[in-house]
Design goal:
This protein has one domain: Growth Hormone, Chain: A, CATH 1.20.1250. It is built from 17 helices and no strands. The protein is globular, with a radius of gyration of 21 Å. The relative contact order is 0.16.
């Protein structure tokens, strides 16, 4: 890469709109890390669904159901929101409203205590629906902020800043979390959930200010017509999606391998604590260590995606994933799990960077939010099947190790379907 090319890439990445878009990734990663992956899952399964008061691994089952129900709702709403957003050209407005709604329903998690299973499930479902739906609008800005030549680079930049956000929120909260889930530290655990809400809000603000929608070219003028037109547009997309066979194949592949990521997002901390006896402090350190290499690897794999193509990049990362699952499920050694998690962190971001880039290249022009709604659906439906599968297998067999191995089915089948996307075409 010559000096001029480097300067050109730097100029692209440091535009105010791109920086604010990436900062939103930094902001929402705090919710993903603290509420979905580490602190709240452990608080939910260890304190709210307190062992001894409920059957063994009942917390795993309820956590999977909570995640699954939230994704069912998200899956229904995502394509409709996408169609309406494309029609009204109000993606930024949707992003802001959904983000604020997520934060509003995250704040009450602070008040949850032992035995409050129903309120915990309801609050998490609602907050996660708003979070997951907002991500659809965030992703839909990518084609607008990049070109076909630098989609991977911009996508990777967003993920890189996002991982920095995950590291930053853990650094901020580690004084509160180091005391673990002991009775004397539960207030600090709940306080960390409140601080996460504030972090999400503060770092989202630049995106509300600097991300601008393109002027609408849609003939619908009256706002009252947006919803009706959105439904019609969605129906048309469902009817004509067969015109985009590569897009359809990719969405099927993405749905399959995303099940593995959904399982890990919801259960990795629970697995580390219950199967490998990690303390909360060890889990926090585990995630902090995992965030560091991903900041660099995200940029690298974004560049690699533009260099060799998104399809090849995804294929490479899925093969890496199979190796990782075999590794971490075969040993009870903490050092092995640390190694596996670092590799998993690198691989997850790399897969998602390439997937988002491939999706951006496959969608029709001027229907970004609508088709990213389908992209969202593919990932969200997998967030129903994957976690529920883990929860059921764990509850029935009483073995989280066997539940973890179910991810292999999703990874291998997703890899196979992916090979039929753009077969013989180098551009993918």
């Amino acid at each position: 890469m010559n000096i001029n090319k480097i300067r050109e890439n730097v100029k692209v990445l440091f535009r105010p709109a791109v920086i604010s878009w990436a900062l939103y990734d930094l902001a929402n990663t705090s919710f993903a890390v603290i509420i979905i992956t580490i602190v709240f899952p452990l608080y939910f399964t260890g304190i709210i669904v307190k062992p001894g008061l409920y059957p063994e691994n009942f917390g795993d089952l309820m956590w999977g159901i909570a995640g699954g129900v939230s994704m069912i709702i998200t899956s229904v709403l995502a394509p409709l929101f996408g169609a309406v957003a494309d029609t009204s050209r109000s993606k930024n407005k949707f992003l802001m409203v959904l983000t604020l709604a997520c934060i509003v329903f995250t704040v009450p998690l602070f008040f949850l205590k032992s035995g409050m299973v129903a309120p915990a499930v309801i609050l998490f479902i609602v907050a996660n629906v708003f979070y997951q739906t907002s991500m659809m609008f965030y992703n839909s800005f990518l084609p607008q902020l990049s070109t076909r030549k630098n989609t991977g680079l911009v996508s990777g930049f967003g993920f890189s800043i996002g991982y920095m956000g995950g590291f930053l929120i853990l650094v901020i909260l580690i004084p509160l979390l180091k005391g673990g889930l002991e009775p004397g530290n539960l207030f600090n655990i709940r306080l960390s959930l409140l601080i996460t809400s504030l972090f999400f809000l503060v770092f989202s603000i630049p995106s509300f200010i600097f991300l601008k929608d393109l002027p609408s070219t849609d003939p619908i003028k009256r706002k009252a017509s947006y919803l009706v037109h959105g439904f019609k547009k969605l129906a048309t997309t469902l009817k004509n999606i067969r015109k985009y066979p590569d897009l359809t194949r990719f969405l099927i592949s993405y749905f399959l391998f995303s099940n593995a990521f959904s399982i890990l997002a919801l259960y990795v901390a629970i697995y580390a604590k219950n199967t490998l006896n990690f303390s909360l402090y060890e889990i926090v350190i585990l995630f902090m260590v995992g965030q560091i290499p991903t900041v660099i690897s995200s940029i690298f794999f974004g560049w690699l995606t533009d260099r060799i193509g998104a399809k090849k990049t995804i294929s490479i990362t899925l093969i890496m994933w199979v190796f990782i699952i075999i590794l971490v499920s075969s040993y009870d050694i903490k050092a092995v799990f640390y190694t596996g998690w670092i590799l998993a962190s690198i691989t997850t971001g790399s897969t998602l960077i390439a997937s988002r880039s491939l999706m951006a290249r496959l969608i029709p022009v001027a229907r970004e939010a609508e088709f990213f709604g389908f992209y969202s659906i593919s990932g969200k439906v997998s967030s129903i099947l994957g976690p529920v599968t883990f929860g059921v297998v764990s509850f029935i067999t009483k073995s989280q190790r066997l539940a973890l191995l179910t991810t292999m089915i999703f990874l291998i089948s997703g890899f196979i379907v992916l090979q039929f996307v753009g077969k013989g075409k180098k551009k993918y």
